[in-house]
Amino acid sequence: MKNIAHTLIRRGLNRVFPGGEGTSHPETDRVAAPPPVLVSGAVETPLVLASPHSGCFYPEAFVQNSRQPLHRLRSGEDSYVEELAAGAHALGPVLLSATFPRAFCDVNRAAWDLDPRMFDGPVPSFVKATHRGLSGLGSIPRIVADNRPIYHTRIPFMEAALRIRDYWMPYHATLAETLRLTHARHGICLLLDLHSMPDAPEAGSPDFVLGDGHGTSCDSRFVTTAEDTLTNLGYKTTRNNPYAGGYITRHYGRPREGLHALQIEIRRGLYMDEATRTKNQGFEPLQHTLTTLTAQLLQSLSRRTMT
């Protein structure tokens, strides 16, 4: 698979760090930080499970320097999603999960999608903000829930570049290599990018939202399989409303090349109390649901490879 985008990101990093990798990260140097991404299993099946937003390691300096208390910084966290996928992982798919939170670095945004207004000086020309970035929800978010600002003051651009280098790049390098190996071994690959969401009244508060970039990132047969499976289990689903998929789905989903990416948003109330972030009685049944969903998609992938 081509990684032209990642090559361009590395070129940007080389401009910021012309002396190489010697610059250290002040927010994590004094803390025994976990690796930025955990990988469990091998590419035994053509399906890959990933949880980019369930990380809960908040560097102490980041929390101390934030205007918001920890519980507000955690408002966008997809708590326990990697645990919800445990049964699905046991069926054979490899499981990737980020250990850092999206409030610190959001890997579901393009690396240089940053709001220039959050920095205390000029930014390099390769920074290209989308409407998401300009709204404060770029790869280094400026805000959390309810448009609450994260930082007391503008931050140095170097801090953003360090997070891209030390968190964004390792996650995507690992994901890209896992997808490449999976596709090479099986001739096809389906990425399930797992997320959680609050109630979405504008969409009628579905239990699951299946995002395929409006038909661009995944073969419709796999989306239909997922939709039918969840509906038959009694869940309310929607496609692409209000979430059609972020950077990960759109960047890695290339159906014509045999690489499919489907973003799955799960309503948090199904498995936890959002106010206390504690699991509820629906946690185990939802684990079984994701296991059943994965089993059905593996069957669908098997049929596809035999045709």
Summarize the structure.
By secondary structure, this protein is of the alpha/beta class.
Strand order of the main beta sheet, please?
1-3-2-6-9-7-8
Helix-residue proportion = 25-40%
Quantity of strands, as a count: 11
Q: How confident overall, as mean pLDDT?
A: 92
Percent range for β-strand residues: 15-25%
Span of the ends, CA to CA: 23 Å
Structural shape: globular
* Tally of separate helices: 10
Low-confidence stretches: none
State the secondary-structure class: alpha/beta
Cα Rg? 19 Å
The topology string of helices and strands comes to HEEHHHHEHEEHEEHEHEEEH
State the major sheet. 7 strands, mixed
Structural overview:
The structure is a single chain. By secondary structure, the protein is an alpha/beta fold. The protein is 35% helix and 15% strand. It has helices at 4-16, 60-64, 70-73, 81-84, 86-90, 131-134, 157-186, 220-232, 247-252, 283-306; strands at residues 37-40, 47-51, 94-98, 143-144, 148-149, 189-197, 208-211, 237-239, 259-267, 272-273, 278-279. Strands 1-3-2-6-9-7-8 form a 7-stranded mixed beta sheet, sandwiched between helices. The protein has a two-stranded antiparallel sheet with strand order 4-5. Strands 10-11 form a two-stranded antiparallel ribbon. Strand 4 (143-144) and strand 5 form a beta hairpin. Helix 1 runs antiparallel to helix 7 (157-186) and helix 8 (220-232) packs antiparallel against helix 10 (283-306). The two termini are 23 Å apart. The model has no long low-confidence stretch (mean pLDDT 92).
